[in-house]
Amino acid sequence: MERTYIMVKPDGVQRGLVGEIVKRFEQKGFKLAALRLMTPTEEHLKQHYKDLAEKPFFPGLIKYMTSGPVVGMVWVGKGAVTTGRKMLGATNPADSAPGTIRGDFCIEVGMNICHGSDTVENAEAEIALWFPEGVATYEKSEDAWLYE
Ligand code: DAT
Ligand code: MG
């Protein structure tokens, strides 16, 4: 089953949006496989965002992401990566549709409250980076009412 790495960024934690974001993924029907509040190092975040290292906003991004704790989680389900991205909304909240997390709760691209993996391959790499000890696997009876 597909897995995605979702992270509440420091502004989302500070603004008390952890529960709201967890709630949306739970209500959708995805299964929680890992969740932890963490204060990652600069090196860890540089690894997470290594594809953006050459971008002009990279130093600001690292500063923002190390400004407080984040909440990392792994959600499992059919289409979790693509659907997770849709649930977050466009990168720039100005372009995020109402009803999406970014569309509903934030204003600027530099403080867009959440992260979601963009491909299955990147999701697996991010899960390995943030949860090197592994994540939970378990049966959920609800699945019988979610999947045909
Ligand atoms: P996403 O988070 O939607 O996957 P991304 O991977 O391209 O977007 O960029 C990672 C984060 O970097 C993004 O959530 C916010 C920040 N960012 C992206 N583009 C930016 C820009 N033009 N100015 C400032 N920050 C930006
Ligand atoms: Mg990205």
From TrEMBL:
Top EC class, one word: transferase
Keyword Transferase (UniProt): yes
Molecular function as annotated in GO: nucleoside diphosphate kinase activity
Amino-acid positions noted as binding ATP in the UniProt annotation, renumbered to this chain: 9, 57, 85, 91, 102, 112
Classification via InterPro entries: NDK-like_dom, NDK-like_dom_sf, Nucleoside_diP_kinase
EC numbers on record: 2.7.4.6
Keywords: Kinase, Transferase
Residue span, Nucleoside diphosphate kinase-like domain: 1-138
Record keyword Kinase present: yes
Active site: 115 (pros-phosphohistidine intermediate)
GO biological process: CTP biosynthetic process; GTP biosynthetic process; UTP biosynthetic process
Cofactor: Mg(2+)
SMART domains: NDK
Pfam families xrefs: NDK
Family stated for the protein in its record: Belongs to the NDK family.
PANTHER family: NUCLEOSIDE DIPHOSPHATE KINASE
Name of this chain's protein: nucleoside-diphosphate kinase
Taxonomic placement: Eukaryota, Rotosphaerida, Fonticulaceae, Fonticula
